[in-house]
Design a protein that fits this description.
globular; alpha/beta; LRR_R13L1-DRL21; ten-stranded parallel beta sheet; seven-stranded parallel beta sheet; single chain; 24 helices; Rossmann fold; 26 strands; P-loop_NTPase
């Protein structure tokens, strides 16, 4: 039955291909969809008999079955090759930029422009104003906005303004587009400066000629439609423009703010969409050109409705107007209105594709190729809400004032991935989602991040193929249905920043294939029982210990972390208190893939034994301890030899710090609201020299904080003394030599809110500091005040010093 359908469909594709270029990749993707399913089925078969106790009996039968399936796929591919040869089909490989870039010129029809008077005045004033740069530099003005919004038109209006023409000795217009070709740009500049195309080929000689031609001349250079963010390309061209006279300007148009920044923009002007009235004026100017008064009266009301669909984009208004010029009857206009233009089979497809999609698809071709491949096969179909049947991966960006969910999406029965972007504030999504879920039964990846949905419909449990569900930043989401736990293939669940979500589904332990669970910054108050069954977890960013109350009976404790030894990356444990045996059974030290651990205690919990049993793996790179109420830190801390960052925050009862200077890879140390009164040699991890056991004649090499680059000390209200060392670098006596190497890479020191601290140790001031910030620390401010403090000379060499009261 399936084979009987192949030939007619292929014939249809070939007929289409005879009329227009057809990328072979589209056909191959459609055809190999069956092969993909076959491979998936084979994998399931293989798994089933490999785990079967009667594997030996069934092996031959199963291998034969697989061989037959592979043979069938091969025969279908051979059939495609034969059909290709019979019809003379030629395969070609799609290039990165198939659509030709449309060139612009400086010419403009003023009568067709509407609604840009204010913006024109702003641009002209910037062009005529005094230069804000040095005498030999050129101000750069950038017009930034969406494709089709009118950046080029605005630049043309300013370029042709009478005052601008009188102000500049030379005006040059270059359509840059993509790629950014320095040779072509230089030739275009020279052609307009000298009146002829230079007979030069090398970039170096061209740029030298440009520099000579504009030397001492006040120039206006327009670079229209710039796309590249590669500063190297701009830096090669820029020096040749530096010799022009003061008051010269470069006017850039681009869709990307990053381009404006890269080009060193002095004045950025963001172009806004036009009002509906302005769009109607542009549309009417084109659509009703040379029509009789009766025709205009008969069609004006429909025309206004069509023009309102322009979303404030003048290019769309012009193209729509040109499209309607050839349509004479009211019925034809109503057809376009009801089709909402985007159903290309109901309107003039060639005009729409060439005039709208060609310029606007430049944004599509600027995407990385890996992103383009997701929807490239069906881009036209997905964009115009038609022919969804064969769409597998769909991204939808809800632009401007979208009000409804495309009804045609329900036709995409085989849809595997659905990404809905920018749906914040769109109430229709929540209403449409249940029905969409019922239809899209093959969905494997569903992305709804940032949407305004309040709940996930219970029908989601029927999406048995769903592997990835992303609900990040759905801030109004209040609940997840228990039916979600029927998603036996779910591998990732993301509720990051779902601030209204109070709990996870209680049966979450059923999701035994779950590999990634993100819940940080959500409103989730506890972890449900049964999470210990999620032994495939690779990512668990947060574990919340229940603090008792109504949730205690359904909450998991730390013991349930015991079997989750594959979790890696970052883990935060919140609300730590009591439960020492349970914490010990969590066996954090066995989680070898953990790189970052954050331990957040219930306010000022004093149990030092609890923190001892929470020993992390020795390969940990970042550790944060918050609200710990004990007086000493655990012994295991100095064993973390790969630790790169340590944060101790709100540990107000701490009386002494461990020998942190012994951590050989520590690069960043943050101490906030810690109760210590003194930082002594024990903090460095070294003994005082006079107590050290050094034999006569030996050299003692004493090191601490060898890789520390940033030291942040904030709100240590009790800190009074920061001890130095008695023998500094290179000091000797008659019997021994001691060499101290303390913080040899320290670059940044921040001290805030230490009112009792009187001085900084010399070994800190001898470090290669590049930044020093002393705030809200009156004793230090007085001691190191610029040119007045007694120890100002000790810090005067530091490049960036900031000392303030607050």
């Amino acid at each position: 039955m399936a084979d009987a359908l192949v030939s007619p469909i292929l014939e249809l594709l070939i007929k289409i291909g005879a009329q227009q270029k057809l990328n072979h990749y589209a056909i191959l993707t459609w055809k190999t969809g069956d092969a993909e399913e076959n491979i998936h089925n084979q994998q399931k078969i293989r798994c089933s008999f490999l785990g079967s106790p009667c594997f030996g009996c069934n092996q031959v039968v199963q291998r034969r079955d697989i061989a037959l399936k592979i043979k069938a796929v091969s025969e279908k591919l051979d059939e495609i090759a034969k059909e290709k040869a019979r019809h003379g089909f030629e395969l070609y490989k799609a290039t990165d930029h198939e659509l030709p870039r449309l060139s612009s010129t400086s010419l403009v029809d003023d009568s067709s422009v509407c609604g840009r008077d204010d913006e024109k005045k702003i641009v002209v004033s910037k062009l005529l104003a005094e230069s804000s740069q040095g005498a030999r530099d050129v101000d750069v003005i950038s017009l930034v906005g969406l494709g089709g919004i009118g950046k080029t038109t605005l630049a043309q209006l300013a370029f042709n303004d009478a005052e601008v023409t009188d102000h500049f000795e030379k005006k040059i217009w270059v359509c840059v587009s993509e790629p950014f070709d320095e040779v072509r740009i230089a030739k275009s500049i020279l052609e307009q400066l000298e009146g002829s195309t230079p007979n030069l080929a090398g970039l170096q000689s061209l740029l030298q000629r440009v520099s000579q031609s504009i030397d001492g001349i006040r120039v206006l250079l327009v670079l229209d439609d710039v796309w590249t963010e590669d500063h190297r390309q701009w830096e090669r061209l820029k020096p040749s423009l530096a010799g022009c006279a003061r008051g010269s300007r470069i006017l850039v148009t681009t869709r990307k703010g990053a381009v404006a920044k890269m080009m060193g923009t002095n004045h950025r002007i963001d172009i806004k969409t036009l009002s509906d009235d302005a769009c109607r004026s542009i549309f009417n100017h084109v659509a009703f050109h040379e029509r009789s008064k009766d025709e205009c009266e008969r069609l004006t009301d429909i025309g206004n409705k069509i023009a309102n669909k322009c979303k404030g984009l003048p290019l769309v208004a012009k193209v729509l107007g040109a499209l309607m010029q050839s349509k004479r009857t009211r019925e034809e206009w109503e057809d376009v209105l009801s089709s909402e233009l985007w159903r290309l089979d109901e309107v003039d497809k060639d005009q729409v594709e060439k005039k709208i999609f060609q310029p606007l698809l430049l944004s599509y071709y600027d995407l990385p190729s890996v992103v383009r491949r997701l929807d490239g096969n069906n881009l036209g179909e997905a964009t115009v809400e038609t022919s969804f049947e064969r769409v597998r991966h769909l991204s939808m960006m809800m632009l401007l004032r979208e009000t409804s969910f495309p009804s045609s999406i329900h036709k995409a029965k085989g849809l595997r991935s659905l990404l809905i972007v920018n749906s914040i504030g769109d109430p229709w999504l929540g209403a449409a989602l249940p029905d969409a879920i019922k239809q899209l039964t093959c969905i494997r990846s569903l992305e709804l991040s940032g949407s305004s949905i309040k709940e996930i419909p219970k029908e989601v449990g029927k999406l048995i193929h769903l592997r990835h569900l992303n609900l990040e930043s759905c801030r109004e989401l209040v609940s997840l249905p228990e039916t979600m736990c029927d998603l036996c293939n779910l591998q990732s669940l993301d509720v990051f920043r779902c601030s209204s979500l109070k709990e996870l589904p209680l049966a979450i332990g059923k999701l035994i294939k779950l590999r990634h669970l993100r819940i940080d910054s959500s409103g989730v108050a506890f972890m449900p029982k049964g999470i210990e069954r999620l032994t495939c977890l690779r990512t668990l960013d947060c574990f919340i210990v229940c603090g008792g109350g109504e949730n205690e009976s359904k909450a998991a404790n730390l013991r349930e972390l015991k079997n989750l030894d594959h979790i890696g990356g970052r883990l935060e444990i919140r609300n730590l208190q009591g439960g020492i045996e349970e914490a010990a059974e969590a066996q954090l030290k066995n989680k070898k893939r953990l790189l970052c651990l954050e331990l957040g205690f219930c306010v000022n919990h004093e149990d030092g034994i609890l923190i001892e049993v929470l020993q992390p793996p020795s390969d940990l790179e970042k550790l944060s301890i918050c609200r710990y109420g004990g007086i000493v830190l655990p012994n295991w801390m100095v064993a973390l030899t790969r630790l790169q960052e340590l944060q101790l925050i709100n540990c107000g009862n701490l009386e002494v710090l461990p020998p942190l200077g012994r951590l050989p890879n520590l690069e960043r140390l943050v101490l906030v609201k810690v109760g210590v009164r003194r930082l002594d040699a024990g903090f460095l991890g070294i003994e005082e020299v006079e107590n050290a056991n050094i034999n006569e004649g030996e050299i003692a090499r004493v090191t601490a904080f060898l890789k520390l680059k940033t030291l942040w000390i904030e709100d240590l209200r009790e800190l009074e003394e920061w001890d130095g060392i008695e023998r500094r670098v290179g000091e000797e006596d008659a019997t021994t030599t001691s060499i101290f190497i303390i913080m040899p890479q320290l670059q940044r020191l921040i001290i805030h809110g230490c009112p009792l601290l009187r001085a900084l140790p010399d070994y800190v001031l001898a470090a290669p500091l590049q930044e020093l910030y002393l705030t809200a620390s009156p004793n230090l401010r007085k001691r190191y005040e610029k040119e007045k403090g007694e120890d100002w000379h000790k810090i005067s060499h530091i490049q960036n010093v900031s000392i303030s009261k607050l």
